[in-house]
Amino acid sequence: MPGERSIISPIIIVGSALILYWVYRDSRARDAYPPFWFAAIGFSGLFIHFLAVPLGALIYIMVRPKGRLVPCPHCGAPRLATLTECPKCEGPLKKECYRCHAAIPVEATECPECGSRS
Question: What angle in degrees, to the nearest 10, is found between the helix axes of 34-47 and 52-63?
Fold first, then answer.
């Protein structure tokens, strides 16, 4: 029916755009090369089939870097807790303990490994 097709098309376009936006933001916060994921999922949805967009997002969820997202102390953007540099502002997130050389959070005043003041 012609009326159904005109209603479904905008829903598919908006849904695909929202999925692409979420994948881009999440891959940027996890430093997982967002242009690659955006292009791979977007082009597969354009040239293969519109169902490739949710399938691509599912694949991304399975292979993305795991871990919790925490705010950057410099810019407040979400980032993966294990990163040493913020993917948005490129500010340092880890520093080296002068005594035991362990990587510690930049806001830490005491090394969790050896207990020395930093």
Answer: 150
What's the confidence (pLDDT) of residue 19? 92
Residues 37, 76 within the same domain: no
Which among 68, 47, 70, 45 has a CA at the least distance from the CA of 57? 45
Query: CB of 23 within 8 A of CB of 64?
Result: no
Compute the half-sphere exposure of residue 104: CA atoms within 13 Å on the CB side of its CA. Answer: 19
Domain that holds residue 80: 69-118
Kindly state whether residues 90 and 53 are assigned to the same domain.
no
Q: Name the domain count of the chain.
A: 2
Q: What is the mean pLDDT of each run of 10 residues along the chain (118 residues)?
A: 66 89 90 88 86 89 88 86 84 85 83 78
Query: Do 59 and 74 belong together in one domain?
Result: no
pTM score = 0.69
